[in-house]
Amino acid sequence: MAGTWVFVEQRDGNVRKVTYEMISEAKKFGDEVCAVIFGKGIEGLAPQFAKYGADKVYVVEGDVFAQYNTGAFVAQMAAMIEEYKPNAVLFAHTFNGRDFASRLAQKLNAGLATDVIAAEISAGKGVFTRAIYAGKAFAKVEVTTQPILATVRAGVFEVKENPAAGEVIKPAVVATQANVYQNIIEFKPTVSARPELTEADVVVSGGRGCKGPEGIKLVEQLADLLGAAVGGSRAAIDSGWLGHEYQVGQTGKVVNPTLYIACGISGAIQHLAGMSSSKFITAINTDPEAPIFNVADFGVVGDLFKVIPVLCEELKK
Amino acid sequence: MKVLVCVKQTFDTEAKIELKDGKISDAGINLIINPYDEVAVEGAIQLKEKGIASEVVVVSAGSDKAMDAIRTALAMGADRGILIKQDTGADEYARAVAIAEVIRSEDPNLVLAGHVAADDGSSQVPTRIAEILGWPHINVITSLEIADGKVRCSSEADGGSQVTEVKLPAVISCQVSWNEPRYPSMKGIMQAKKKPVATVDAVAVENKTRIIEYFLPQAKQAGVKVEGEPEECAAKLADFIKNTAKIEVKA
Ligand SMILES: Cc1cc2nc3c(=O)[nH]c(=O)nc-3n(C[C@H](O)[C@H](O)[C@H](O)COP(=O)(O)OP(=O)(O)OC[C@H]3O[C@@H](n4cnc5c(N)ncnc54)[C@H](O)[C@@H]3O)c2cc1C
Ligand SMILES: Nc1ncnc2c1ncn2[C@@H]1O[C@H](COP(=O)(O)O)[C@@H](O)[C@H]1O
């Protein structure tokens, strides 16, 4: 059992940054690092993984892999694990990654650590740190089966260029249409020129204090100046000012940006669950007692309708 | 059609977490149904109200305390419950095995669950159950329709949303945006007391993971808070963004 495998998270050849984060981190374990990619028309991507440290790239091409479907992906990965016997396989903790890893783990009768924020992997041993109770506590957990399986939270590991050979290997394709049990009728991409919430370096979020679409517009203006993603508290989502996919928090998305700007958000514990691990937190709120100030590195007590426009001007200077 | 709902009892999302003897302390903690599972219960009851489901069975694995979660689901309108007595230290694998065993004997057409537990944040158990049973699954659904022996759901996906259809029987895990769970009525609470709840022992299997330790986050250092004229405050915040957080401003 050798090698740390990183499963490449991509759609239509667009690779998620978390893939490179995992490859960079995997280098630290000293073992051979292999990128594993399933898809259609994806062979040309191999050098990208080599750039960040992939010693090998397992490329699995085929119509059945054109988009993620649990059945075919699990059948293919299980066969490859059987053949090549990696020590560990890392997935991104995305919707697809967690779906894939859970079903694979059960097929292999194996343990799995999901949404990990720290990893120590050596031969036959994998110890992971994960947030529990929505970030109010942490658990260090060992996966006691092999291969060691984990899904990794986006944005916690640093991407480092570290060129390696990136030898392309083409494993036997065993998955067929017969393995597919989910009929994906339609995929509707979120159309937004802004970065994805879970991958963004800066997130600007609006809450009930935005009072309506006009307040959200200010939040968006600020976001665009900073190349940021837009998020919202549940109050903003429930009010219909933003779609559900923008919710940050316990029942929304967990974000991990360098900078989080909370505008008109009180800082309820369920909201903090989704953003408290941001590197820098700032807040604009009229209430000096708002709990968001307990976690803010920099807080402005003030009216967002007055502060944001001036802030935008100041930033442009 | 018989619908089975998996409910996990979790800490109230407001709960303050403390450690005692190296373990998470549940002293004085208000226990609730995992919020996602409440949505699953509501979805099942609505299927019954629409005449699609004939029976709604709720299943929870855990200590005797989990009986409260089952009673709450019964008060909302589920028909009967099954408490699987299991050590609360059981990991996702062991829980999935225990729950799948009960599902096998109940033989429902549809299993609904939450897509993640608010306490362990694992997002594993429903998918594992589906694999054990050899059934298809769809995760993180936001709508559900049943027709011609199939279930069709919208679900959240990476970079968008999607519509997926699978054959029944299937395991479906829910996102909170699917529906708004009802509060149990007084009548519902009274009726729940008379509804049957069976208790079974979990099949004994070993965990595939081991908790080494629990720890709490480090207390955050107090930050800077400025008050006063918006112009002045905004200038200071701009300075923080540019020079401390080192964020580049787009032209
Ligand atoms: C099970 C469960 C799960 C939940 N999950 C989530 C979740 O995922 N995400 C989430 O966000 N919430 C979640 N919540 C809801 C959460 O408890 C709060 O209700 C919610 O976060 C409040 O949103 P808010 O801060 O925008 O609104 P409020 O709490 O109403 O705060 C609005 C803030 O705006 C300030 N304000 C008002 N006017 C202005 C102004 N002009 N300028 C500046 N500031 C102003 C006010 O002082 C106030 O602090 C959940 C709750 C439960 C029970
Ligand atoms: N002990 C349990 N009893 C019943 N259902 C559970 C249990 N643990 C997990 N589940 C179900 O699986 C879902 C996901 O849980 P988890 O994989 O722990 O995040 C929950 O929302 C429940 O529906």
Task: Walk me through the topology.
The complex is a heterodimer of chains A (317) and B (251).
Chain A: E1 4-7, E2 10-11, E3 14-15, H1 17-26, E4 33-39, H2 46-52, E5 56-61, H3 70-84, E6 88-92, H4 95-107, E7 113-122, E8 125-132, E9 137-143, E10 148-152, E11 167-169, E12 183-189, E13 202-206, H5 213-225, E14 229-232, H6 234-238, E15 259-263, H7 269-272, E16 280-285, H8 292-295, E17 298-301, H9 304-316
Parallel strand pairs in A: 1-4, 1-6, 4-5, 5-11, 6-10, 7-10, 13-14, 13-15, 15-16, 16-17
Antiparallel strand pairs in A: 2-3, 7-8, 8-9
Helix pairs in contact in A: 3-4, 5-9
Chain B: E1 2-6, E2 9-11, E3 19-20, E4 23-24, E5 31-33, H1 35-49, E6 55-62, H2 67-76, E7 80-85, H3 92-106, E8 110-114, H4 125-133, E9 137-147, E10 150-157, E11 160-167, E12 170-174, H5 186-194, E13 197-201, E14 209-215, E15 224-227, H6 230-244
Parallel strand pairs in B: 1-6, 1-8, 6-7, 7-13, 8-12, 9-12
Antiparallel strand pairs in B: 2-5, 3-4, 9-10, 10-11
The complex binds flavin-adenine dinucleotide and adenosine monophosphate.
Residues 6-8, 34, 36-37, 59-62, 92, 95, 99, 113-114, 116-117, 120, 122-126 of chain B line the site of adenosine monophosphate (AMP).
GO biological process, one term (chain A): fatty acid beta-oxidation using acyl-CoA dehydrogenase
Family (chain A): Belongs to the ETF alpha-subunit/FixB family.
Binding site for FAD (chain A): 208, 233-234, 247-251, 264-271, 285
What topology, given as strand order, has the largest sheet of chain B? 11-10-9-12-8-1-6-7-13
Biggest β-sheet description of chain A: 9 strands, mixed
Number of helices of chain B: 6
Q: Identify the overall geometry of chain A.
A: elongated
Spans where pLDDT lies below 50 across 5 or more residues of chain A: none
* CATH homologous superfamily heading of the largest domain in chain A: HUPs
